[in-house]
Amino acid sequence: MTTKLVHSFILSFVFLTSNSQDIPLYIGTYTSGNSEGIYKMTFNTKTGVLHDLQLAVKAENPSFLAFSPKKNYLYAVGEGQTSAVMAFKMKPDGYLQHINTENSEGKGPCHISINQEGNLAVVSNYGGGTVSFLPINTNGALSEASQVFNHNTETEKAHAHSAKFFKNDIYVADLGRNALYQYQLKDTKYQLKSDSLIETTGNPGPRHFEITKDGQFIYIINEYGGSITSIKKIGNGFKMIDYDSTLDPDFKGKNKCADIHLSHDERFLYGSNRGENTIAVFKRDTKTGEIDKIQSISVHGDWPRNFTLDPTGNFLLVANKLSENIAVYSIDKNSGQLTFLHDVKVPTPVCLLF
Predict the structure, then answer these.
(1) Closest CA to 45 of 81, 19, 70
(2) What is the rounded distance in angstroms from the CA atom of residue 78 to the CA atom of residue 86?
(3) What angle do CA 328, 258, 327 make, to 5 degrees?
């Protein structure tokens, strides 16, 4: 084999190896500015390079996204005038094909989760203070809501902000009622088990939360409190075991926490600060569940509404809404700490989904 052929073979091998690490990233946005809907980009899980921005499908304010278990369908809430929940089919080229749209049964839908069977979606309606359950057909299409729970009372305005399935339970963070709700599946319907897993004081504003794989610990990030509440399962209930600030002690400005995620091995916890514009990094004791802050790092942008870890657990990506960019960080798996790599411009990114 000639030197030229050997060189060509090596280049081809490197190219193929690099491309084998490329995976799609889907980006939810607000469409009041330059955005037109849901975008997709290519992310290299070996290098951390994020590139090739493309419009995957036009949609109005697709602010939060979720995959079906097999990733053959994608679902989005639309925070427009119609309070929409949208279903899309994944095409072979990575673009999205609209299947149908249903009503979220509440104003301002802001979050959606899909169960492990892929046959039910739960939608949190921030403005309406309701939680809706929408069955999913075998072709990926959404059906009308089969159950709607209204968290509002005569004296308190609810703001349901996020919900997650865990086995036969659904947990819902309600920022307006300062509570974490628990629903349990009874026969074929969900029923309320608790409208407040723990007692809260003041107005912390629980927004998003993470549940450990064994279901023994839940970590709630508080939008108004600039904090994380750590709770542990005790018998049939829960108790608070830790309460930690996400902010630097010297920070004096206004702040609203947003998103929270555990590392894949659950040894570290990450939370985003909108205002301080940082990611707070915590080391987690996997036995006791308690956390300690070990790093605060700039998001290299403004208003980190959402962030995610890539499937390898080697990278963390932050969606900065107001500065319209996505910042990419490498993760030291030994220490959990982040190192900034680069950022790319994206129109109004507010949700990232691998």
Answers:
(1) 19
(2) 7
(3) 10
Q: Give tens-digit pLDDT for 94-126.
A: 999 999 999 999 999 999 999 999 999 999 999
Instruction: Supply angle C-alpha 264, 265, 266, rounded to 5.
Output: 90
Question: Domain segments of the chain: what residues?
Answer: 24-353
Are 136 and 122 in contact by the 8 Å Cβ rule? The answer is no
C-alpha 305/C-alpha 66 separation (Å) is 16
For the whole prediction, is pTM greater than 0.90? Answer: yes
Structure tokens at 31: 């469409």
Q: What is the DSSP string of 69-99?
A: TTSSEEEEEE-STT-EEEEEEEPTTS-EEEE
Give the DSSP per-residue string, 203-236.
---EEEEEE-TTSSEEEEEETTTTEEEEEEEETT
Q: To which H or E segment does residue 5 belong?
A: helix 3-19
Structure tokens at 41: 């980009």
CB atoms near residue 256 (< 10 Å): 18
The CATH topology of domain 24-353 is Methylamine Dehydrogenase; Chain H (2.130.10)
Identify the DSSP state of 175.
T
- Enumerate the β-bridge partners of residue 157: none
Q: What is the pLDDT of residues 45-76, one digit of tens each?
A: 999 999 999 999 999 999 999 999 999 999 99
